[in-house]
Design brief:
With 75 residues, the protein is of the alpha+beta class. It is built from one helix and five strands.
Length: 75
Amino acid sequence: MKLVWRAPCPVEPVRVIEWSCECRSTVYELCLAGGQAFLRRTHHFNGARQVHETYRWPIREGYGVWRALLCGQAR
């Protein structure tokens, strides 16, 4: 599964439900906002931080995409 990463859009409060290990230069988060789920990718490089997000899905579908990402079936 190929994920489309785009610039983050400001929305109502975001709740981070799960996240990958912060010991890596790229951290992934499963987020909920406005009754929808999306993934956030934060890349740390030489003190700079670059953030991207996916499109939003219904919460159940978002959990499925999150599991696919963690299992290496999504990028």
